[in-house]
Structures are given as structure tokens and as C-alpha cells.
Amino acid sequence: MKLTNEWIVGFVDGDGCFKVLRTPRFEETRELHGNNPRAEGTTRYCFVVSQEKRSKDVLYALKKHFGCGFVNSAGRNMYEYRVANQEHLKNIILPFFVKYGLRTCKREDFKLLYKTLMGVEPDISAYPMCRDWLIGFIDAEANYYVSMVKDYPIPQFSIGLHERDHQVLYEIKNFLNCGVIYKKNPSGEPGVPTGRRELRGKNPYITYQISSLLGFEKIIETCVSNKNRCLLRTAKRISFLKFSKIVSIIKTKKHLTPEGKAQIRKIRDSIR
Predict the structure, then answer these.
(1) Whether residue 102 sits in one domain with residue 168
(2) What is the full DSSP assignment across 254-271?
(3) Do β-strands 70-75 and 78-83 pair in parallel, antiparallel, or remain unpaired?
(4) Number of domains making up the chain
(5) At 124, is the pLDDT very low, low, confident or very high (cuts 50, 70, 90)?
(6) Is residue 215 over pLDDT 90?
């Protein structure tokens, strides 16, 4: 599996993290731990990307791409790619994300790790929105689902983020030129499409959603190559391909027939 730099940035913007882990000094923990020599103040640094077991091949591809780190089980059917060696962080990971800047709030965590390890602020700027970045971000954050309302199929594509990353959703919306952005009401029910000044509310999460055939065609066009090959790299490609089949049935209006509805239900029930 070959990964592009832009895809990696999009994927890490969704599922990656940069950590500075500090443990208390001995004096601060003596009352709790007694005279335990292991309870001394230390600082650890790491770059981590987590995925469920079905998508662990992506983690091995990241390891191959960077040439450092390791992949291991993280419990509960999860795996992680981790780089904790300081020299690898300084010479490989940090320079990569300076050159290919992150777009989400992960950028602030990266800057903290960089400053702590390197002693200076990083000089970075967000990498321009592009197709490969978006595919990586979709691999990390997107959801495809189909609901049946009065025996009528309603597909939806969505990306939900914390409110502090609302600008990323607007950039995606502008790049695809379709979809709506909304926040949820305190009850958890979807609200009306929202503008930038209406984002403040009790629920800190907002969602970018596509629910039109035109929008579905844009997503499919984005995630499929000229040779009709799916460009997604995680297990989400399975959901995407099934979702695409349902969209195809709706485009040909076969969803109005009993046979088409039955076919859609069968595909929908197998989407994970």
C-alpha cells in the first residue's frame, strides 16, 4: 500500500495525535507512593495513529513510509502506530509535519511537541486543501449510512468534528461545493443548517452533511480514480463501495420498485 504525503496529513488530521506526557516529580508523589524510586518526574514524547484491527494495514504502511516506529495492539480490537524515539521524532516526524502542515486542532498539539523537543516554535502553515488530503481525512473521519423512511431510502454522508475545527468543515464544503453544515440541539437532534456566527451552543460538535444525489456524485468522484478504483485505504472503503451501489440504484430509479428496495435493504444492513 503506497501512501501520499497529502493523504497522510489528512489522515493524521483525523486519527493522529502528538503527545507530551509528563509524570510528577518524586517529591510530588511521595505521599501517594511512598519512597518509590520509579515515581520520579519524567517527560515522554510520542506520535500515535490508532485504527481498528480491520485497518491495521494502513498503520504498517505508515511505518514503511516513515521508516521508523512500531505497530502494536492497543486493546479492544484496536492497533496503533507509535513513534517514541526522540531522534526519529526530531529528524523524521517533526520535519514532515512542518513541511506538510496540519489543518485541525491537532496542529496545536504538534506545535507543543515540537517546541518541547526542539526548543523553538515551528514555522509552519496549513497545507493547501487538495483531493489527497480530503481522501485521507475521509478515511479517518467520514461516515456513510442509509436510513429507510416510510420504505424510502435516504443515504447520507457526514463528517462530525468538535466546534473548534468548524473552519475545516467549511473548507471541505467549499472544496466540494455541496452539502450543509449544522450543529446539534442540546437534545441531540440535528438542527437547521448553520452559519459561522451561529456555531456557539451547548453541544460542541458540528457536522458537515451531504444528502443530495449531486453531492453523492461529488464524493464518489473524489474517492474513485479515473480507472474506477476506490482510493480509500482503510476499512471504510467497504462501506463506501456499498454506499456507492445504493446511490447507483437510486440514480436509475430502481429504488422505487420492490426489488430495488429489497436490494438496498440488503446492502444497507451489511454496511459497517
Answers:
(1) no
(2) GGGSHHHHHHHHHHHHT-
(3) antiparallel
(4) 2
(5) confident
(6) yes
Three-state secondary structure call for residue 220: helix
pTM: 0.85
User: Scanning the structure block, which residue is given the C-alpha cell 496503533?
Assistant: 80
CATH number at residue 10: 3.10.28.10
Grid cell of 209 as nine digits: 452533511
Query: Of 251, 261, 248, nearest to 150 (Cα)?
Result: 261
210 occurs within a structural domain: yes
Contact call for residues 43 and 22 (beta carbons, < 8 A): yes
- Residue 224 forms beta bridges with which residues? 230
Q: What is the pLDDT of residue 99?
A: 94
**252 Cβ neighbours under 8 A, 6+ residues apart:** none
Q: Which residues pair with 209 in a beta bridge?
A: 158, 180
Task: Kindly tell me the number of DSSP H helices and DSSP E strands found in the chain.
Answer: 11, 9
Same domain for 179 and 220? Answer: yes
Structural domain span for residue 51 = 5-118
**C-alpha span between 13 and 19 (Å, rounded):** 14
**52, 125 contact by CB (below 8 A):** no
